[in-house]
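job 3f2a | input accepted
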Amino acid sequence: MMEMGGAATRMPAWKPPRRRRLWLMRHGAVDYFAKPGADFSSPELSSLGIVQALAAGALLVQQGIDLLVTSGLPRTRHTASLVLPGCQAVEDSRWREIEPGKLAALPQGATPDPAALQAILHTLGPGLTDDSRFLQGETFGAARTRVGEAVTDLLADPGWQQCLVVAHSVSLRLALLHLLNAPLDSVCRLEQDAGCLNLVEIDPQGLPLVRLVNFTPPSPSKELHRHSSLEELLLQFLTPQSSTGRS
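job 3f2a | predicted structure (247 res):
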């Protein structure tokens, strides 16, 4: 106790650290193959994706986000504009999704070859190495390096207290692995549903504390999410006319 002006004041024995908050969000749901010949890299948000983005916005509006980052791809820009209307976003292409090759082995509407089907469903592992390729496209090592650099640079920036990054399924998994110092082959053990939020708190020494993973505001109990992201993608590709719109 200390006597100050005749009043007894208890001084705290310890003051806990003040942590910055890094929100990581996957863009809202899209229909990748809704339009014949559509560019896989620039699908539009589906009606469900818009609902997901607005729900995330309702949750984040009071958080005091002072830095908004997107990958620059249209689906992340659109999502960000719905989550935080009027907020100017910084674009960092290192947050873009891992770049796929082609699904040529699985003609749309055809009965898929079982071996090709399994290869696609296991493209996120287990058994990943840096040289493994996502659907015959970019290597996981290259994607992990660029996403890790984006995370490192973001944490080194002292100019924000609450940051929202709107990115993609695999790039967010890689970011979480980087923050957790987890092995690459853990990618298949993390899910990032469309419109989900993750929360990582950063202490003054830069140590991350993962507090929330894959929270979906419109569907907290996951009743709208019974398939993995890869399964949703495959369903959209094989039956585009009946797309779920949840990827």
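job 3f2a | The chain has six helices and eight strands.
job 3f2a | closed
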